[in-house]
TrEMBL record:
Coiled coil region boundaries: none
Pfam family, one: Pkinase
Disordered: region residues: 328-377
Name used for this protein in its record: Protein kinase domain-containing protein
Organism domain of life: Eukaryota
Domain Protein kinase: 23-287
Ranges of Basic and acidic residues composition bias in the record: 361-377
GO molecular function: ATP binding; protein serine/threonine kinase activity
Length: 377
């Protein structure tokens, strides 16, 4: 039997195509490797969403099934992107999820300056909460970086940072014979992004929850200026630089209170549950000291209007001809159980996208959001 053929490039779908009798492709948002992301319109309603498609012939297999499983586990959680649909066709598989706004990487480039402490600590609280939400469903991300952190598009969600791209995520909890933490393995493979991964990652050691938080800390430190290893390119050199960099140097332009974060992280091991409340209290303490509010404008929201990214013109949607594509449709099976009521259609496990603006209420966190231990470890 001949091995399945491999497609060297990303899935390229024509605008106007309707996937799964429902999702009309209206704009290509980006691509990389063997995957592509599109903005889609729900033909049965007013809502827009993001569709991520990936070839079924990727060497090593598609990661969309993993991503869909993780999003489904986080379904209904506060300030988390939602999965609307997942399916598989002959050439590619896809998932449809909440359409988000700019990544932090993009707004970093647009600002061309160091962020204020106000923006830094508020983003830190959102990133911390997103990471905790992922950890509470049994996964570590292993690739926290500005490109994988995105703002919402509407209402209060524009203030919230959402985690993206779970392709390198790993389950650290098993439920096969009762819930327990998986034994760490020594791995020869490097997982993550050199600039932002923890020093522990450079030793090829298994990554746990603390490693995601080290990456978060590096992202926050970079908001106030270049990281000490920014000029280095080789993984080995970067790893040595991270191990040799003192906390004071790393956070030299940050509030002194933030030194409590690396101090805590250095006390943790693979099996340790981070004290998310301690980190939240540290960042929130800076806000209280200087009178910052979560809903204050971010630095990029105060830029001159000509610096802002131009919105997409609604007129382009009406010019796209519809192309139906309903062949070979299968549900992309995920481990999590269906959430819909008994007897409902196959997609009822997923929430529905909406075209209406969310009520523009304030984003709020409580100490309990960071203190409660939902997973039990």
């Amino acid at each position: 039997m001949a091995p399945p053929r491999e497609e060297p490039g990303p899935v390229d779908l024509p605008l106007g195509k309707v996937i799964g009798k429902r999702w009309k492709l209206i704009q290509k948002l980006g691509q990389g490797g063997c995957g592509a992301v599109y903005m889609v319109q729900d033909v049965n309603g007013k809502g827009k969403a993001a569709l991520k498609a990936e070839s079924n012939f990727v060497a090593g297999g598609s990661v969309l099934k993993l991503e869909a499983q993780i999003l489904q586990r986080m379904s209904g959680k506060k300030y988390v992107a939602q999965l609307f649909h997942a399916g598989r066709k002959e050439r590619y598989c896809y998932m449809v999820m909440t359409l988000l706004g700019d990544s932090l990487e993009r707004v970093f480039r647009r600002c061309h300056k160091e962020f204020t402490v106000s923006t830094q600590v508020r983003l830190g609280i959102h990133i911390l909460f997103g990471i905790k939400q992922l950890h509470e469903v049994g996964y570590v991300h292993r690739d926290i970086k500005p490109a994988n952190l995105a703002l919402g598009r509407k209402g209060r969600e524009t203030k919230v940072v959402h985690l993206l791209d779970f392709g390198l995520a790993r389950e650290y909890i098993t439920v096969t014979n009762g819930k327990e933490i998986l034994i760490p393995l020594f791995t020869y493979y490097f997982r993550g992004t050199t600039r932002y991964c923890s020093a522990n990652t450079h030793t090829r050691s298994e990554q746990g929850r603390p490693d995601d938080l080290w990456s978060m800390l590096y992202v926050l430190a970079e908001m106030r200026g270049p990281l000490p290893w920014n000029h280095l390119r080789e993984k080995k050199e970067v790893g040595l630089a991270k191990a040799a960099t003192s906390d004071v140097r790393l956070l030299a332009k940050c509030p002194i209170q933030m030194l409590e974060i690396p101090k805590h992280l250095r006390e943790l091991g693979y099996y340790s549950r981070p004290d998310y409340l301690l980190i939240y209290n540290t960042l929130n303490g800076v806000m209280n000291t200087y009178g910052y509010k979560l809903m204050d404008p971010y630095d990029w929201e105060t830029l001159p209007s000509d610096s802002a990214l131009k919105p997409i013109s609604p007129s382009i949607f009406s010019k796209i001809r519809t192309i139906e594509d309903n062949s070979g449709e299968k549900t992309l099976e995920v481990v999590s159980p269906a959430r819909g009521p008994k007897g409902s259609n196959k997609n009822s496990r997923y929430p529905e996208p909406t075209g209406e603006e969310k009520e523009d209420e304030s984003v709020k966190y409580t100490p309990e959001d960071f203190a409660k231990n939902e997973i039990g470890f």
